[in-house]
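Researcher: Go.
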Amino acid sequence: MERSLADQLPPPLPEEQILAVNPPRNDLHTSRSYTWNGWDFHVPPGVFMPGGTSRMIHQRLMDDDIDVRGKRYAAMGVGLGVEAVAAGARGAAEVYAIDVHAPSVEATARNFALLLEGRTPTRIVPVVSDMFTDLPDGTRFDTVTFNPPAVSHPTSTDPDVVRNVCVGAPIAAVFFAQLRDRALLAPGADVYLIASNTADLRAIVTHAEKSGFLGEVHYRHDWGDGVLTYLFRFREDTRR
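Model: Structure:
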């Protein structure tokens, strides 16, 4: 019998190792700047700056490995908005910039306008929402990306850190259930989720499978310190 994808994945790292690779940031509640791909982004207080895992998503958007050209794209947990700008630069038809954190959505809209105004036909749709809850009925996506805050152990008591880092694997259950229950995906849509073994990868994939999604490892990166990052691609299981 073929092993399930979940069974092929490593367990979470020990708590002490997870905490060691997720040190608390002291500048989260200050105004900062961030530069990537020649773009300069303003980072307001409380908005997280992307790390290496996020940059894997951003680069794959720019390289068309995650192809959004002419498509309706949802950036879940958009944060600062780098993926929204990348998708606009690559010619997405629409970019839904979704985050539960209103200042992050505002920062995304502002950065998108400053960096791409007059340079792309892409329509950006800023949405403050707890996951997909506040999207209008009938919304459909061709591509979705999500870098969930799925770290297995609390790394801070700061609610902004928890929101961005360590909610845990159950957030994936909500994510996939809402995609399914609200029929948010167009036929053949791709859902990309990225997570490392600082999270419970097996639980994340199991949540996806229970919601009717088939997954594969699209890319795997070994950071050389025990952390393994997986970019998964999921599609709805049309055999059901």
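Model: Residues 49 and 232 are 22 Å apart (CA to CA).
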